[in-house]
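Reposting from the mailing list since nobody answered there.

I have sequence plus structure tokens for a pair of proteins and want to know whether others read the tokens the same way I do. The first protein:
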Amino acid sequence: MSSAQGTVLLDGKVVEPETYEGDSITVQGAQGNPVTGEEGLFTATGCGLWVQLPPLASGKHSLKIRGRSGDFSTGVDYALTVAASSA
């Protein structure tokens, strides 16, 4: 996690990620899962950069996430639509 970097833009505004160093977690894998390819229990570490978004107003929003750690990088763009509350 020491080399992890990431950016998040919500509607063009920066949302600061928080670093979560992680805990040991136990995962129940299904046959053919993309992590191990096998079913059964295995132990992994849950860690990463996390963002908690504020409540979004109804309407359209954009969310852009970029991250990198060592040789691994990821990027995703979301087009979000929040329905008006019926309450």
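The second protein, same order (residues first, tokens after):
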Amino acid sequence: MTRAPERLPSSERPVIRRNPVLQALGHEGDRLKAALLHPVRLVPLAFLAVIILGAGILMLPISRTGGGEEIVTTAFFTAVSAVCVTGLITVDTATYWTPFGHAVILGLIQVGGFGIMSLATLLALFVRKTIGLRGQLVAQSETHTLNFGDVKSVLFRVVKIMAVFEAITALILTARFWVAYDDNPGTALWHGVFHAVSAFNNAGFALYSDNLIGFAEDPWIIVPICAAIIAGGLGFPVIIQLFRDRPKFKNWTIHLRLTIFGSLLLLTVGIVLFAAFEWNRAETLGPLSFGGKILGSLAGGVFPRTAGFNSIDYGVATPETLMITNVLMFIGGGSAGTAGGIKITTFLVLGFAIWNEVRGREQVTIAHRSISSSTQRQALTVALLGVGAVILGTLLLLMSTDYSLEKVLFESISAFGTVGLSTGITYNLPPTAEWVLMALMFAGRIGTVTVASAIALASRPRLFMLPEERPIIG
């Protein structure tokens, strides 16, 4: 007969302490805790926490050389731009922030590009050698891991990918800064590492007051940075499949095909049209050599893919160039990477849906594979929410500034697409407009991912069908 365990005296019993706020709320507190810790909601909350921490550090005197009455707004704007890997700035990064401030910005870029909850999950793996169910769900929603059991392996692969690409880019840039620009070895190394991390994470922050305009004709600077931007913008799933799994072309997944061919198409269109519109203009590519014009056109096609670097002054670019750049910025790069925008796969899935609808086909097919209706609805939702965010942001900026629609729209799309390109108006925006851009950057980095994950997690099969009716379309 099993003997019942003896009860400990009340003085020796462990005291279970609960959060007093949640305890006062009772069941409502439990529901609030569960709601806040939901994987879809935890990601934006984590990003917000890191932004607040980063802004607090940037406000310290050790982080800045400048002051001013708007230090709080400046610090928050820079922190949001760095964590959301955007690159929009309201002060000169090179002169306003100290070397310590530059290091803080670099850390925020790296954390924001890798993913805050992915980083937390990785640290938990190192400390406890395992992660719980909630941690895996959070990391899965942030990394877009399709298979639940792959979360751990994907995180380690992402770390290796980032380290390899950033190290190679940093090595090339460091050598160039040291040999060609007379930087001492320490300065060359720091500049090489900073711009390599900024490039691969598609952040666009630079340690030069004119960004990369001073290097417009230097292929040893522009080409490695463009290569790092393209690699980071493809998305980690694509890089893993290409370099680790090495599938034969016939076995490429739809996601891989859409991302690779979509990227090549958009890069080609961007480079060709940028060259066509700016080749002979005295304000942009005109004064450059033939090789410089080629490099400038390459940069003009790559940088709008959510990178934010610039080798020309977009404030004097043609309206046609700004329009093409708007389109490229809004589409963005690949999913589950460091790029922003609505993503290439979203854009192409909608394009194929329109094409099949025009041809009268009920089923949307890509490369002999059908695309589910839920995927099409998800793509439509992400795209329309992006359009809505840009329209709202543009309207608020028009109400708070005196700039033209052309420049305000460019700034809104750049912020939402986490690109960082600017026509030069960001420096002169009032605080209200700066907070609008902060909201757009945050929504662009977090919003579409959160919405897409929420739709995927909340989808439930309906056990009944309602009567069907067809409204008039068009």
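Reply #1 (J.P.):
I read it the same way you do. Strands lie at 365-366, 369-370.
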